[in-house]
Specification:
A hairpin with a 5-residue loop joins strand 7 and strand 8. The chain folds into 2 domains: 110 residues, Metal Binding Protein, Guanine Nucleotide Exchange Factor, Chain A (Beta Complex); 138 residues, Metal Binding Protein, Guanine Nucleotide Exchange Factor, Chain A. Helices cover 6% and strands 32% of the residues. The protein contains 3 helices and 20 strands. The chain starts with a strand and ends in a 5-residue tail after the last helix. The protein is mostly beta strands. It is globular and about 55 Å long.
Length: 292
């Protein structure tokens, strides 16, 4: 029995092997919904999936005419969604146990953003894999930017402007990021707090702080569940932006993988970026301190 749960532990489920089609999906809708560079799902017949707690906390958002995405309304973690037909799509990032199955391929590889790279040897398909006759939907149009870098959630209810340069970006594999984004890892960048301006929808955002964390807060849209900007504080004068929430090129690329000692058992880190078992050698807060 494979178990999973959201970041706050309200929503819990169990599912039984065998599992079907574990895939990394790079489509824009998955990136926005998860606030991550890609999402990893497997499917399971409905009769082998059991929601054990938290049904009342689940919000469903119709990301397309035929598909609803689910998330925990308390913490924002993406939760299993009803797939087409008689299956349930389970996000691997929220698993509490090793599913003992591994990703088979990348789908929608042609949608990989400019700030990310596919570096492993798994098969890649520009859209769905051959034999999958599901409709390929066009990406939602990005908001008009006027030349300024902007970001938004999947439903478009919240939009922001990033008016300061990014100073750092990392791929983070910590357990909290995996749970919050329901993904193998997240890719975050930081700018000075005064550079962030909401254009609309700031009132739609929910900020869930992990009780035993000094700072870790997951911010998400209450309508669609998309991972959004973590606000700054007086002692931390920067904001943390999921690169997947951006509608343009941030002009920076992640420079390393951090907290790799928490890497999910089903995900293999590849490529030539440096890897650190814990956090970055130079803490983000130090990059935003006024010089002495």
């Amino acid at each position: 029995m494979v178990k999973g749960s959201c970041l706050c532990g309200t929503v819990k489920w169990e599912t039984e092997a065998p599992f079907n089609r574990m895939r990394h999906c790079h489509c824009a809708r998955c990136r926005k919904a998860h606030g991550a560079p890609f999402a990893t799902y497997f499917s399971v017949p409905k009769e082998r999936f059991h929601l054990t707690a938290g049904a009342a906390a689940i919000t469903r958002y119709p990301s397309s005419p035929e598909y609803h995405r689910s998330f925990c309304s308390t913490c924002g973690s993406v939760t299993p969604s009803t797939g087409n037909g008689d299956t349930v799509d389970v996000p691997a990032g929220c698993l509490d146990t090793d599913p003992e199955t591994r990703p088979m391929m990348h789908i929608f590889a042609a949608s990989t953003p400019v700030w990310d790279r596919i570096t492993d040897d798994l098969p890649r398909h520009d859209t769905f894999e051959p034999g999958n006759d599901a409709d390929v939907l066009p990406d939602s149009p990005a908001p008009e930017s006027g030349g300024t870098l902007r970001g938004s959630c999947l439903c478009g209810g919240a939009e922001f402007e990033a008016g300061a340069p990014f100073r750092v970006a990392y791929h983070c594999h910590c357990n909290r990021c995996q749970k919050a984004r329901a993904a193998a890892h997240t890719s975050n960048g930081s700018i000075a707090a005064e550079g962030l301006r909401y254009l609309k929808g700031e009132d739609l955002l929910v900020h869930f702080k992990v009780a035993d964390a000094a700072f870790f807060t997951h911010t998400f849209c209450s309508v669609c569940g998309s991972g959004m900007v973590k606000p700054g504080t007086g002692e931390r004068p920067f904001v943390t932006i999921p690169l997947a929430s951006l509608d343009g090129d941030p002009g920076i690329r992640p420079t390393q993988h951090i907290y790799t000692n928490y890497n999910a058992p089903w995900f293999e880190i590849s490529g030539d970026l440096p890897r650190r078992d814990e956090g970055p050698e130079i803490q983000t807060i130090d990059l935003f301190q006024d010089p002495a």
